[in-house]
Specification:
By secondary structure, the protein is mainly β. The chain is built from no helices and ten strands.
Length: 127
């Protein structure tokens, strides 16, 4: 059964860094597209970035500050977050597509193509 579990969140000051982890069971991460999303209180779930077998993509709001990487031996994905801002405060989720998607440009940015969703990990950026 597919399960992705996020961890590594916490409280950090503006300008600081955090590294989130996404551990998978029932899925080999390197064989799948994995997306990182976040959701702030009162807001819709927002795409942060995605990694495929060969490429990584980032939203404009995090490009140059966040980096997605993969440890194949541990079947774990990471989201390195640097130069954090207050507006990065949110619950962060990783997820895999719920079905094979083709013919939809930019589908990897859309949360409704992903699932199931885990509990997420809270990131709070505050002084």
């Amino acid at each position: 059964q597919l399960q992705l579990v996020e961890s590594g969140g916490g409280l950090v000051q503006p300008g600081g860094s955090l590294r989130l982890s996404c551990v998978a069971s029932g899925l080999t991460l390197e064989d799948s597209v994995i997306g990182w999303f976040r959701q702030a209180p009162g807001k819709e779930r927002e795409w942060v970035g995605s990694i495929t077998q060969t490429m990584t993509y980032y939203s404009d709001s995090v490009k140059g500050r966040f980096t997605i990487s993969r440890d194949r031996a541990k079947n774990t994905l990471y989201l390195q977050m640097d130069s954090l801002k207050a507006e990065d405060t949110a619950v962060y989720y990783c997820a895999a597509p719920s079905a094979l998607v083709s013919g939809v440009p930019g589908w990897y940015r859309q949360p409704h193509f992903y699932g199931p969703w885990g509990q997420g990990t809270q990131v709070t950026v505050s002084s």
